[in-house]
Amino acid sequence: MELNELLEKLELEEAREFEYFENFADLVENQWDIPADTLFTLFSETDKEDVAEVIRQYFDEMQEGMPDDSTDIFTLIETIKMYLSGLILNAKNDNLMMDFAEEINRFRNWYCEGSSVDCVDIGTGKKETISLKDALTVSRIDRMENTEHRFDFENCLDYEIDEYLMNFADFGDEEDYDESEDLIENGYVYDDEMKEKG
């Protein structure tokens, strides 16, 4: 999928218009086959602070829809929110922007298809395994329609976050920094994978 096709699906005329909650929701909730290169081009032309804000808004709403007894998955989603919003704010070169694009794609695939939640209808006893996205939809319906389901999010908790990239997300966007000096000061040791990413 090229950028122009993605923009058409998002109902945008140009990439810099990607600044609203609905834009991010459409991007992550649809199972479109979007190459990381296309996402890289899209987000390279957006306002980073606007994108970080809509990411935070989206994840905040996701957390509001979670069952009350879902502390572990709530905490994981909070971490992913901080991770993705931090990455886009600190994507000050092409390598980091590509990392962000790849991480967005990884989240999309996990959220819509790769995650696994056991869901039991308390009224009928029927059990099914659904994605995290679908489980949160069911949870919201429960609140509106007075139905009740029990959710087991255990199989979703193995979502891996790259500690190397998390390091960049944690720095904030207040000032530029020398990547190699900060990694060394924080106890990181270069290996071949780090050299490739740098």
Largest sheet: 3 strands, antiparallel
Query: What is the oligomeric state here?
Result: single chain
Given the helix and strand composition, which structural class is it? mainly alpha
Strand order of the largest sheet: 2-1-3
Helix count equals 10
Which segments are poorly predicted (pLDDT under 50) over 5 or more consecutive residues? 172-198
Distance between the termini: 27 Å
Question: Share of helix among residues?
Answer: 55-70%
Sum up the overall morphology in one term.
globular
Number of strands: 3
Can you give a write-up of this model?
Helix 4 (48-64) packs antiparallel against helix 5 (71-89). The protein has helices spanning 3-9, 21-29, 36-44, 48-64, 71-89, 94-114, 132-145, 163-169, 179-185, 192-197; strands spanning 117-121, 127-130, 149-152. It has a 3-stranded antiparallel β-sheet with strand order 2-1-3. A hairpin with a 5-residue loop joins strand 1 and strand 2 (127-130). The chain has 10 helices and 3 strands; from the N terminus they run ααααααββαβααα. Helices cover 59% and strands 7% of the residues. The model is unreliable at 172-198 (pLDDT under 50). The chain has 198 residues and is mainly alpha-helical.
